[in-house]
Amino acid sequence: MATVADALALQTVKYTNVAAVGLLVFDYCITFGDEVRWTLRRSWGVPAVMFILSRYAPFIGAPMTAYYGVKSQIFYPELTQCTTFNDISNGAHFIGIIGSEGLMLLRTYIFWGCSRKFLAVMLPFSLVAIIVAVVVDTQPISFGTPRVSQSCILEGPRASTLPYGVLLLYELVLMALTIFKRYRKYQNLHSSAVKALYRDGVLYMICITLISIANIVVIAALPMAYSELLNTPQIVIHSVLASRILFNLQDATENRRQETNHFSLSSPYFDLPSGIEGVNV
């Protein structure tokens, strides 16, 4: 039986998820012009697909999660209805995060000079990370803690920390690779495009790393009624920051022809491979 504290916790979770949806809509409104400018001259390719997934999947998953919390136990007369609804919402969350992480991987790939060795290592690593995250999310491991009741309540098990742990590890690896390359190869270069790649990428990874850590702490340490507190904020922050990486990089590369510097994205260090049309922002 739910206590007063649990009821207050669930109410807080609902408000947080609804507020995150509001943030997503607000960010979309203020960046729509940048999106139009970025997509007008773009042919379809890997970056465009990743951008669409990252940008628009949250508009499915985030409102569904918020609505699921607000209407829990009232909207769904049968368990199967809320289970199906929740599965679709979780699927949209996964797709959005995969799109955002794909953009982050692509940005790191560019920063590494479009190295095939980088792809040979990171693509299998990324695939393994996705598979592990999906498996541990759909088949949660029991830690000896009580399972969440099967009623339609916005609440998850302790094992939800595992997908966030996989995500955290993946982001830490990309951050380490970016920092390593920055100080190993580009330390004395002053191209605005390189600065944009580095600054936005590291800032993005720091923010996502922090919210992943926060999610793990909330799920593992707080009462289970708080387990979905950062569910929607996680995917919204992924989407917002991933979009800004592309938009800010576009602004930087528009000025690259004016640089008298010996380095720009058109140098051999940043020759773009065929088939990745959208990378050439």
UniProtKB/TrEMBL annotation:
It comes from the Eukaryota. The chain crosses the membrane at residues 15-32, 44-68, 88-106, 118-141, 161-180, 201-226. Keywords: Membrane, Transmembrane, Transmembrane helix. Residues 15-60 form the DUF6533 domain. This is DUF6533 domain-containing protein. It comes from Rhizopogon vesiculosus.
